[in-house]
Amino acid sequence: MNNVSINLSEHFSLAELTKTNVKLNNVPNEAQVANLKRLCGWLEMLRSEWNSRYGGGNDPIIINSAFRSPQVNKAVGGVATSNHLTGGAADIKVKDICQLIRYATILLDIADESQEDFDELLIERNDSGAIWLHFAVRQTGNRRKVLLI
């Protein structure tokens, strides 16, 4: 699937969820696009709830990384079992720790209220101190794994 101008949901495009800063092929197949669409359902709910509770209107959810081809995943140091490889994960940019905790809380509330499972909700940080929220959902076998890494 090459058309990166495709909208996966109201506010998220295929281009946004396949962008990468490494110059390698990063084009998902149809099954991976279906997983990205499932993930976008959660991201749309997060966006809506964030704007309802805190955003005051129309704040976007910014994605740092979502789908990764095996080559891209290897180049960025991703693990071989990463949900990014299937199109089932997104690393979500946050302004600060308060926004990160609020995003996590919203996603946990959505899961509880909808009785839908997610696979991972990880609060992550790199060596330089940058923080982000990793959120993943699988078609089946979701674990509701919540960790501060």
Can you walk me through this structure?
With 149 residues, the protein is an alpha+beta fold. It has one domain (14-148): Muramoyl-pentapeptide Carboxypeptidase, domain 2 (2-Layer Sandwich). Helix content is 37%, strand content 16%. It contains 4 helices and 5 strands; from the N terminus they run H-H-E-H-E-H-E-E-E. Strands 1-2-4-3-5 form a 5-stranded mixed sheet. Helix 2 packs across helix 4 (97-114). The chain is globular, with a radius of gyration of 14 Å. The termini are far apart. The mean pLDDT is 93.
Give a topology summary.
Elements: H1 14-18, H2 30-55, E1 63-65, H3 70-75, E2 89-93, H4 97-114, E3 120-125, E4 131-136, E5 145-148
Parallel strand pairs: 3-5
Antiparallel strand pairs: 1-2, 2-4, 3-4
CATH architecture: 2-Layer Sandwich
β-strand amount:
15-25%
| Shape summary | globular
Question: How do the helices and strands follow one another from N- to C-terminus?
Answer: HHEHEHEEE
Please report the total strand number as a whole number: 5
Which spans of ≥5 residues are poorly predicted at pLDDT below 50? none
Q: Portion of residues in helices? A: 25-40%
* CATH C-level: Alpha Beta
Distance, first to last CA: 34 Å
Please summarize the sheet with the most strands.
Answer: 5 strands, mixed
Radius of gyration, taken over Cα atoms and rounded to an integer in Å: 14 Å
Helix segment tally: 4
What structural class is derived from the secondary structure elements? alpha+beta
